[in-house]
Amino acid sequence: MSLKPMITLRNLEKSYQTKAGFTYVLRQINLNIAAGEFLTIMGPSGAGKSTLLGILGFYDHSWEGEFDFDGVAVHKLTAKERAALNKRHVGFVFQQFHLLDDLTVAENLDIPLSYRDVKRSERQAMVADTLDRFGIVAKKDLYPNQLSGGQQQLVAVARAIIAKPSLILADEPTGNLHTDQGREIMDLFKRLNQAGTTIVQVTHNHDWAAYGHRIIRLKDGWMEG
């Protein structure tokens, strides 16, 4: 693992305006994540875990504080520039899959590759390889609503890693999988991490949390410890 920080957050805060004033979701988050680290975020529901992951993935733009990514000052970028960073560097496993319903499994896997200027012939080979790796070749022409929750989650994980992102963000990545499938996914993350991919996961599962190099805990938007 490199000691060079990939991500540095300084006094990062996220709040919503309500009738009663500001409601804070994240408070004074100061965090360094090294390139090549495997970090686990834990905490009760509503602690701000998914919100923090969304900010790290450049999906959420309405926050305050400073965020450096690989030497780039994200807080100074436009929404369009942040979206470009997301497409170039991030693979995201969402809790609710976020597969595109009108695309087949194979087409869903092709989407992240199409963002990265990969030639069509190479994309087809990478999709075929990934379908094989995840044991879902037989599902390639099916649509998400024809798959079980567990199968949809496998496709979502496959889509997140297919373009070999430098950062994988996983929000309860094994939540819809039985234990054996969950362990397969976590073992895959471990191998990707050993090969140099930085991983940040949110989980409630202590067994899966232990795959990380360290655990940070959020409570009521604050980082504990």
Average residue pLDDT: 90
Spatially, the strands of the biggest sheet line up as: 6-7-8-3-9-10
Q: Which percent range fits the helix content?
A: 25-40%
Which overall shape is indicated by the principal axes computed on the Cα atoms? globular
Strand segment tally = 10
CATH superfamily: P-loop containing nucleotide triphosphate hydrolases
Major sheet description: 6 strands, mixed
Distance between the termini: 23 Å
Q: Which residue ranges are poorly predicted, with pLDDT under 50 across at least 5 consecutive positions?
A: none
Global Rg:
18 Å
* CATH second-level architecture: 3-Layer(aba) Sandwich
- Total number of helices: 7
What is the third-level CATH name, the topology? Rossmann fold
Strand content: 25-35%
Q: What kind of assembly state do the chains in view correspond to?
A: single chain
**Strand and helix order:** EEEHEEHEHHHEHEHEE
Class of secondary structure makeup: alpha/beta
> Can you tell me the number of structural domains?
1
